[in-house]
Amino acid sequence: MTVSAVLVIIMAVLFACGVYAMLERSLTRVLIGFLLLGNATNLFLLIVMGRPGVASFFGSGDVEEMSDPLPQALTLTAIVITFAVSAFLLALIYRSWQLGQADTVVDDEEDIAVRDRGTVEEDQMDDETSIEDEDDDATTDFIGTDTAPITVLHHRDLDGIRDDAPVDRPRGDARGRRDEGGEPR
C-alpha cells in the first residue's frame, strides 16, 4: 500500500464514522460526527492536491515541481467553516442543556401526529380540495362585477380625486399631441 491508499482508507473511515455519528439524536454526537466529516474533507483535499512540491511563487522553481495552491486554499476554507459551525453547534448544545438538562432531540407532538396519520386521512384531505374544482360558480376574480369588493377609481369618476401628478410627455402641446409628421403642434 502506498501513502495515498492509506490516506484514502483513513478518509473513508472518517466519512463513514462521521455520517453514522450525525444520524444520532444526541447533539454531542452530531458535533463529533461533524468534526469527523470536517477532518475527512481536509484529508480528501490533501489527497487531491497530489504529491507535495515547492511553493507556487513566481520564480521559485519549475512549474512541474510546484504544488497546486487551490486545494491548500480550500483546506483553509474548510477549516474555518468547520470551526464556525462547530462553535454554533456547541452553543446549541449548551442552550439545549440549560433548557432541558439533556442534549437529545425529541419529536414534537405535531411530528408524531403527522407520522401516525394514515392514508385514509390523506385521501380525505384530497377530497376536500376536489370540492373547489366542482364549484364553477365560486371564483376569486371579482373585478368588473356588481358585488366586487374592490372598486377601481379614476380621476373622472369623482370630482374629489386630483390627478395632477407630473408625468413624462413628449414635447408638444400640454397634452402631448403631435401632428401626422410626428412634430409637436
UniProtKB/TrEMBL annotation:
Compartments where found: Cell membrane
Gene Ontology cellular component annotations, sorted alphabetically: plasma membrane
Membrane topology: Multi-pass membrane protein
Region Disordered, residue ranges: 115-185
Biased composition (Acidic residues): 121-139
Top-rank lineage group of the source organism: Bacteria
Biased composition (Basic and acidic residues): 154-185
Membrane-spanning residues: 6-23, 30-50, 70-94
UniProt cross-references to NCBIfam families, sorted A to Z: PRK07946.1
Record-stated family: Belongs to the CPA3 antiporters (TC 2.A.63) subunit C family.
Protein name: Na(+)/H(+) antiporter subunit C
Species for this entry: Microbacterium hominis
